[in-house]
Write a structure and sequence with these properties.
By secondary structure, this protein is an alpha/beta fold. It has helices at about 20-25, 70-85, 95-110, 120-125, 135-140, 155-170, 180-195, 205-215, 220-225, 230-250, 255-270, 285-295, 300-340, 345-360, 365-380, 385-395, 405-415, 420-425, 430-440, 450-460, 465-490, 510-545, 550-565, 570-590, 590-605, 610-620, 625-635, 645-655, 660-670, 675-685, 690-715; strands spanning about 5-15, 30-35, 40-50, 55-60, 85-95, 115-120, 130, 145, 275. The protein is about 65% helix and about 5% strand. The protein binds guanosine-5'-diphosphate and magnesium ion.
Length: about 725
């Protein structure tokens, strides 16, 4: 009936959005009514001519969603997938935008070439709803054409747009919408498997199939199973793990959470860009009422600062006794090993490498745990999404994108994240320059590994106001990250900003069980890392700090010195001093010591002595190691093994350290090269090692300049 090269379009939308009216308007008398093969759902087809070209038009059944729950929905989506119309015209009822755009989201997910026909604008206008179609088009990434199907107004423009879209071809599958950390992560697990095995590959985008599996879509699951039973079962198992996890933590099904996030996406489109101005108050949900206050331009940021400060106060005020207690435990273990083990390298390794090293990291578990609990509370209640929402505005100013906010928060923007998942989350950004700017600045956040170092230094040198300094450290991290981003966007990464949309899921009352699970999951990850990677690096660093050991003639020299002491009056004290000198000489002679000393001519400008350098070099392997290496470096040279003092006290009383040096050290730690794993992740995300090396070099030089500035200025001002 139709020429092969004629344009083929499908009209899709909610029931009563005006599809049939538009269809009649387009096709006039040239229509043909039948049924879809195999089902008794009405199929209308017709021809319309536009500027001399024939267009084949199909009126799809009206649906609210694209699940597998009803015949209409199945027909609609099977048609889109199997018949592959050149353009899908999504008819959206402008007077009922929120519910209509929910379906549009699902077309975006499916990645079909889309044009939104914004219908019934006459009705909307009568109700006082004004819609900024340009903004709507920016946020959804598809053309939006206002029409009045009943009178035919705008239809010509619509056809023009359709023709244009048909020429540019299908848009790639959209990754605009994020579904929350748990689901996003599950998607990330499923998509590569689907792609690798090319499951339903030719018909559906892998991201859509993955989403449907998580939604437990019977049709898609059955199709996948039919193609590959074994892999299909793996995918279903992963999906079930997610479902159980969501049940346990927030007492919701994956499909509910996905739907919530779609609605969140739609709502934020509607509100954020002032896409609509609705005078009708009743339609606001409770969540929206709360958000009016919580994300208010003035109240919002103040509340956010108060909550952040509250989080730190809570953490430092309530975890202190546990930290002390853990410290005592490790000190006890140390003295136990001291008295129980025979002298020798094994003893030194266990005390200096294992107990001081891993203990230094584990000692912070209470702080980490309290912090994670607070963050879980913010996250599970839905507040964290509001933080991201508010940061959007600021981010834009600094040349970043709204989607950059989550990577920052994941990397430790509030406290205690990790830059590796943060770097991976940068994938959601579509503009390469904004993505790169985000990629390079997320490692500036105070991740969970920097937290112990910050805590240690703050406790040693600024003990009076720990929460306040932690709060300041967070602000400084953000400020520096944003300024550097702006700098990059004005120089190396100059270019246009793209519009952003941020989903606001409804508020939920967190369940206690969910909070504990989230807290424990993250804490356990931290502990596991301390017990494995950190233990390994710690022992390696201990070895580097112990070997090759003093040459025998030097040992003999010290022995001779000891012999001379025998006659002296305060013998014990003198012997200890010699022990200390010998230990320090040993450390200087070691591999790590030589590295540390070779850096000293430069590092002393920032107030770092060679022992600190050892810790900083070790910190490149993993930032946690900074604390443990300082621990090892300062315990190797310890005067009196009986009197086991904490590292905090050791630093506070050491002659190389003072508040100015500590502050320079803090700044350096916060901004120098990302740890090794993050660098690898950056290389992977950026697609080249060039940027990974750039981030190592740039960050280190930048951090060092700041540290030097602080140290020199502070010393000149006599604050040290
Ligand atoms: P369908 O279910 O999507 O096929 O929707 P219909 O085409 O049957 O339209 C539903 C109702 O909306 C009908 O009463 C139409 O006359 C009316 N309608 C459709 N488009 C418009 C429009 O642009 N303005 C107004 N005021 N009414 C419209
Ligand atoms: Mg109809």
């Amino acid at each position: 009936m139709t020429a092969k090269d004629s344009l083929h379009i499908a009209l899709a939308g909610n029931p009563n959005a005006g599809k049939t009216t538009l269809f009649n308007n387009l096709t006039g008398a040239h229509q043909h009514v039948g049924n879809y093969p195999g089902v008794t759902v009405e199929k209308k087809e017709g021809i319309c001519t536009h500027e001399g070209n024939e267009i084949r038009v199909v009126d799809l059944p009206g649906t609210y969603s694209l699940t597998a729950y009803s015949v209409e929905e199945l027909v609609a989506r099977d048609y889109l997938v199997n018949e592959q119309p050149d353009v899908v015209v999504n008819i959206v009822d402008a007077s009922n935008l929120e519910r209509n755009l929910y379906l549009s989201c699902q077309f975006l997910e499916l990645g079909v070439p889309l044009v939104i026909a914004l219908n019934m604008i006459d009705v909307a206008e009568k109700r006082g709803i004004r819609i900024d179609t340009e903004k709507l088009s920016e946020f959804t990434g598809v053309p939006v054409v206002p029409v009045i199907a009943r009178s035919g107004k705008g239809v010509n423009e619509l056809l023009k747009t359709v023709q244009k879209v048909s020429q540019t071809g299908a848009a790639p599958p959209r990754t605009l919408i994020r579904y929350g950390a748990d689901i996003d992560e599950a998607l990330k697990d499923l998509i590569p498997v689907l792609e690798e095995h090319k499951l339903l590959g030719s018909a559906y985008p892998a991201s859509w199939t993955a989403l449907k599996i998580l939604e437990n879509d019977e049709q898609i699951v059955a199709k996948v199973m039919l193609e590959n039973m074994k892999v299909g079962q793996e995918l279903v198992d992963r999906s079930e793990t997610l479902a159980r996890h969501l049940q346990d933590t927030i007492d919701a099904y994956p499909e509910t959470v996905i739907a919530d996030h779609r609605y969140g996406f739609v709502r934020s489109i509607l509100r954020q860009g002032e896409v609509t101005r609705i005078t009708d108050q009743d339609r606001l949900y409770a969540s929206d009422q709360i958000d009016k206050v919580v994300t208010n331009r003035v109240v919002g940021p103040l509340l956010m600062a108060a909550i952040l400060f509250g989080l730190y106060s809570f953490t430092f005020n309530w975890s202190g006794f546990l930290v002390d207690w853990m410290g005592m435990c490790f000190a006890f273990l140390g003295s136990l090993a001291e008295s129980a083990l025979p002298d020798g390298p094994i003893k030194s390794m266990i005390i200096s490498g294992v107990i001081d090293g891993v203990g230094g990291v584990l000692g912070f578990v209470p702080i980490i745990m309290f912090m994670f609990f607070g963050i879980a509370l913010l996250e599970d209640s839905g507040y964290l999404a509001r933080v991201a929402f508010m940061m959007d505005r600021i981010f834009h100013f600094f040349g970043l994108h709204g989607s950059s906010v989550m990577p920052f928060i994941i990397s430790g923007g509030i406290a205690g994240g990790c830059a590796v998942p943060g770097v991976m989350a940068v994938r959601t950004l579509r503009s390469p320059k904004e993505r790169m700017a985000t990629l390079l600045t997320v490692p500036f956040m105070n991740c969970g590994a920097k937290l112990p170092v910050l805590t240690l230094i703050i406790a040693a040198f600024f003990p009076a106001h720990q929460a306040r300094y932690m709060f300041l450290a967070t602000l400084v991290a953000w400020l520096v990250a944003l300024l550097v981003a702006k700098l990059l966007r004005m120089t190396l990464l100059r270019g246009e900003s793209t519009p952003f949309v941020m989903e606001l899921p409804p508020y939920r009352v967190p369940t206690l069980k969910g909070l504990f699970i989230h807290t424990w999951e993250r804490t356990w990850q931290y502990i596991k890392k301390a017990g494995t990677v950190i233990l390994g690096i710690s022992i390696l660093l201990w070895a580097m700090m112990t070997y090759p050991g003093l040459p025998s003639d030097k040992v003999a020299d010290f022995e001779a010195m000891r012999q001379q002491v025998v006659t002296s009056a305060d013998k014990a004290e003198e012997l200890l001093r010699i022990d200390q000198l010998e230990a320090e000489a040993g450390l200087r002679h070691s591999i790590a010591g030589r590295i540390g000393m070779s850096l000293e001519p430069i590092s002393h400008f920032a107030g770092f002595d060679w022992r600190t350098n050892i810790a900083l070099v070790g910190g490149f392997a993993a930032k946690e190691v900074i604390v443990s290496t300082l621990g090892t470096a300062y315990s190797l040279g310890e005067v009196d093994p009986e009197e086991t003092t904490s590292l905090t006290d050791r630093l506070a009383s050491d002659k190389h350290w003072n508040p100015v040096a500590a502050l320079a050290f803090l700044f350096f730690i916060m901004f120098y090269s990302p740890c090794f794993v993050t660098v690898v992740a950056i290389a992977k995300e950026a697609g080249s090692w060039k940027w990974a090396f750039f981030s190592m070099g740039f960050n280190t030089v930048f951090a060092f300049s700041m540290a030097v500035g602080i140290f020199q200025l502070g010393t000149v001002l006599g604050l040290g």
